[in-house]
Amino acid sequence: MDDTKRVFAEALRRLQRERRGAKITVTDIAEAAGFDRHTFYYHFSSLFDLLVWMFEDEIDRLSEIAGSDWARMIEGSLEYSEEEKDLVLSLFHSEYKEKICFFLSERMKSLASEFLREKKGSSVPEEYIPCLAEFLAYGTLGLYFSWLEGGMEKSAHEVFQELEYILGNSLKGFSPE
Fold first, then answer.
1. Nearest to 152 by CA among 104, 99, 73, 80
2. Average pLDDT in the 96-121 region?
3. According to the per-residue pLDDT averaged within each range, which of 7-21, 25-39, 55-69, 98-112 is highest?
4. Which of 55, 56, 117, 134 has its CA 20 to 30 A from that of 102?
5. Do 91 and 157 touch, CB atoms closer than 8 A?
6. Are 147 and 104 in contact (CB under 8 A)?
């Protein structure tokens, strides 16, 4: 089933590169993937459902690579966004912006909490983890959204360096020892 979902995701990426911001429908995606709308709706309830699946799939991939290395996870996310610039900017400026921002905020808080709990030798008391996770999530996403608003003119590496500096290199403190 994931193979079919990946075909739909790749069709959306391809259409986004070709159309650069033009409206893309479920029918467009289904046809580009070599399926009909019914097959799309068998796998996804909506275009937004496909987007969430794509983000989750990428987050899972990055999590496997980064392990409990928060900095590597953020850097990988920025690099992915840079590689998929047309898609990311189109989605950020679409009717789905609010939903995507909410989804990313919730997912980022969850990931930050996981990383803080997994950090060996952490001196952060359990009762402060939700607050610290929220701080890390919103601070990181604030810089990320600002980067998107500016059209991603800086490189992902530059944004990551700024983030490390702003947080006083604390991202490295959340890497395994």
1. 80
2. 83
3. 25-39
4. 117
5. no
6. no
R_g (Cα) of the chain, nearest Å = 17
Q: How far is CA 89 from CA 21, 27, 29, 81, in A?
A: 9, 22, 18, 9
When pLDDT is cut at 50, 70 and 90, the band that residue 74 belongs to is confident
Q: Give helix 129-149 / helix 85-92 axis angle, nearest 10°.
A: 100
Q: What three-state secondary structure class fits 176? A: coil
The Cα 76–Cα 59 span in angstroms is 9
Q: Which two three-digit tokens encode residue 65?
A: 């690579």
Two tokens at 75? 């850097």
Helix or strand holding residue 19 (H, E) = helix 2-19
In this prediction the pTM is 0.78
